Amino acid sequence: MIDNDSDSSIIEGIMTRVWVFFYGTFMSARVLRQSGMDCSDTFPAKLAGYSLVIRPKVNLVKVTNSMVYGGLAFVEQGELNRLYKKVHETYGHAYYPYPVLAEKPDGLMRPALCFIAEDLSSGDPDPAYIEEMIQCAQEMQAPASYILYIESFKTANKSAPAEANVCRQDDEF
To answer: Can you give the CATH number for the domain in which 78 is found?
Structure first.
């Protein structure tokens, strides 16, 4: 039985926080804090079955045998809603939460939300954004092959299908 007088604030705090797999620059706790999130830390994680795309904004697409590296964070749901509302207002793209299963370097699988846009316009990615994403991926200890994959967006061939340029699942932390 729950003592409503003493435990309600603890339970409310737990109930309003969710695990989120972040990719792009949001994988970094530093960037999340700069964006107004109360995020003390993000943990390196990877997500199988998705590939990172930047057209010009970052997104994930389902691609068999591919892998995305990012950060796993336990964040307050209200702050999360404000973050993606601001992204929508600033860039005009709506990202929606999808349930995923993220893997930490120790093999622990964590159910989480991951925000993915259903439709993004095409365009060339901003080289400064790519450089910032590389820095964030390095902070999260992403493998060198993933860093090179992110760098490939600087010179990506737009006519090539997404499946031709993916980070494969055999890459490790």
So the answer is: 3.10.490.10
